[in-house]
Specification:
Helix content: 10-25%
Radius of gyration: 21 Å
């Protein structure tokens, strides 16, 4: 229950003060691999005046939906199995009521229908990306922080890896602030492309995207020697994959004949 309680408490914070509670996001990774965890959004947390998952999000109408999208992406890319409670996927404002039905009529409204489409796409992306589930209990290989300490911008970045060595680089922005020319450290020199973006217009976002191919720049950033320069949408999740690794140049070694001449 630790991940759920910490995540929901963080989600309810005004974004202005989230930097003061950054550890609520990162603490779960200190124990995530000690057992086989399920990451739930429980029925206990959407009743008795605690508000629905959507209504917990601070901000105006659009920001609440953006908040749900980024926090669901956090759940789906965090090590552990997933469990959401009914109506989370359509953005029900009203708390769960055991005597009432899910308010399916909400799907007649654009934002709710697009949130359902987002959850469906996120589920398909998860299933088609072994890096997100194949090594859930493997601290040494399945998960690696890129930057866990960017509390000032309330941004997390990390790598998920599968058994074949394929990786997905994930960045989560928990503030309603767009970042231009953001340097995201990446594990390999080469070319990267965006493979998932929670801010896409089809999901109800503002459609701040990273289109095309991004070449790495040489820089020492968070113990990585390469980075890509990207756009980070407000309150969003963006994910990248390396589509081409630059060959590693081997250092030239002197031959015995060359040494003899010296």
């Amino acid at each position: 229950m630790g991940w759920m309680n910490d995540t929901l408490a963080y989600a309810a914070e005004d974004p202005l003060w989230r930097k003061d509670h950054h550890e609520r996001l990162t603490f779960s990774l200190t124990y995530a691999f000690s057992e086989r965890y399920i990451l739930p959004i429980s029925h206990d947390e959407v009743v008795h005046g605690k508000k629905s998952f959507l209504d917990r999000m601070p901000g105006e109408y659009d920001q609440k939906f953006a908040g749900v999208r980024v926090f669901l992406a956090w759940m789906m890319t965090h090590p552990g199995k997933k469990l959401t409670f009914m109506s989370t996927e359509i953005g029900q404002f009203r708390e769960w009521d055991y005597a009432g039905a899910v308010e399916w009529f909400l799907l007649d409204y654009e934002k709710h229908a697009k949130l359902q489409a987002y959850v469906a796409r996120l589920n398909r992306f998860y299933l088609s990306t072994p890096a997100l589930w194949e090594r859930d209990s493997d601290w040494a290989g399945g998960f690696e922080w890129i930057d866990a300490d960017n509390r000032e911008q309330s941004i997390l970045s990390y790598r998920r890896k599968d058994r074949a060595g394929k990786e997905t680089v994930i960045l989560l922005n928990f503030l309603p602030v767009e970042r231009e020319d953001f340097l995201l450290a990446v594990p390999y020199a080469g070319r990267y492309e965006e493979v998932f973006n929670s801010d896409a217009a089809e999901f109800g976002g503002t459609d701040v995207r990273n289109t095309g191919v991004y070449k790495t720049e040489k820089c020492l950033l968070r113990n990585y020697g390469n980075a890509i320069r990207i756009r980070v949408p407000a309150m969003s999740a963006v994910m990248f994959r390396c589509i081409h690794k630059n060959p590693v140049r081997k250092k030239k070694t002197e031959t015995p004949k060359a040494k003899a001449k010296q």
